[in-house]
Specification:
The protein is mainly beta and about 140 residues long. It contains no helices and seven strands. A hairpin with a 5-residue loop joins strand 5 and strand 6. It starts with about 35 loop residues before the first strand and ends in a 7-residue tail after the last strand.
Amino acid sequence: MSSDKHNIPIPSRTKADGTAVSQSDLRGLFGNNSIWFIPTSGANAGEAYLFGYGPMDSEMTGPFFTPDQQTLFIAAQHPGEIGGVRENMAKEMRQYAMKTVNGEMFMQNREVPIGSNWPTKGENDPPKPAVIAVRRMDGSAI
């Protein structure tokens, strides 16, 4: 998902002129980019599981497994691409017109950081891209 669509407030599913908000603009409902695991075999084949959530204004890329399946590499590209440095831990409340699995509308309020300080998360630290290595503590395959 493009960074310019991350965390865009969606206070209504209808525009002022009465037309529906486009599917493209509804991407703001999903927040940041994320990484999902979807088993291709076994009892849970086809079910989606959230594995990781990207930093503000970043694109999660990769992933890459080592041949022994013991290490997963994931990259966070251009964090802060839209909001820049998160100055003084800036944040704001935004509204999102959500739907339940039954199609019922409800309003969700979210506190959204403005900019990024990833990966240090230190106040006023500049955001930096990085590669993350994920391994199991017991040394077995992921």
